[in-house]
Amino acid sequence: MINEGAAVGECDYLNILWRYYLTPSSQIVIAAIDILKELSTKDEDESLKLQNILLAETLNHPLNQKYPLKLSYQLGFLKYIILTLEERGVEVSEDLYSKFQELLQSPPPSSDFSFKHYKAADDKFVTLKESTSIVSEGTTGLCSWQGAFVLAEWCLENSVVLNGKGILELGSGIGLTGLVVCKTCLPKYVAFTDVHESVLKQLCSNININTGCEDNFDYGPEDQDVLLNNLWEGKHILVAKLDWISFDLDSIFCELDFPDVLLAADVVYDPSLVTPLCKVLNSFFEKKKDISVIFACTIRNQGTHELFLETLGGMGMTPKLIPFNSKLIFHYDLVGNVLLYSIHKET
To answer: What's the count of helices (H) and strands (E) in the chain, helices before strands?
Structure first.
């Protein structure tokens, strides 16, 4: 996307900035510092040219135009750029001022949701409509959590394990990990599952945004377990309601082979749900002894984490730590240590 007229070093700065911008992340200010230093050293014509490239690759990026980031974030970012340039005595492009005025005159957002764009591969983005609040509509499942980013990165680096396999994700939330798998791997199918109605609807919407099917979006009947079942680029994509308290796995997989791989991120957070979660896992092992299970757990409460490990052991399941050093492919704010586990059932 970067303009061919920009120098190589400038492209590096702009590429980093644009990836931070589209996410967005609190690290955007750090990323902006380098490009602002670069702009301050250029002559006026070159500086104005680079400012317009910066605008094209952030606020005017096609993804931001179609699925805009939070309005207050866009205003804050552009204000920071303009004020910093003015303080350094750099001539500011009229296009930056015009864009700022345009944003100031934009109507306030009609909901507590906005879009974020995560670059999963060179030409592949995952676009998610997320809640701007940690808790929304009585659930925490309407925004992406740290464990999902780590698990998605593990999937990117271990795509050979997923290619040609049936994948099921527990507690999919709004779909980050599963959509990264859909867009960058070659699974037979990906089955997204969750239980909260608002989360399931948003999950279906995000899947349709990323597969280009949003014009034909049709959320399935609420009394059915399978709410969406599409074929996209040769892969079946399924969304199903899976209640850990009362579940029927056969109703979900009546038309698909039983999954080969089970993924889950940040589903260990509530002590009251630890036993139901482990019972669900046990049921999968009872139906398929060699199923691969990969969990990403953000350690927020050590007691809850230890309860999970103990409950697994009490049901004959063994968690094994997976050595993994995140390369921070995705830009997100770090809030705690994330552990990856491979879980097996004793035979």
So the answer is: 13, 10
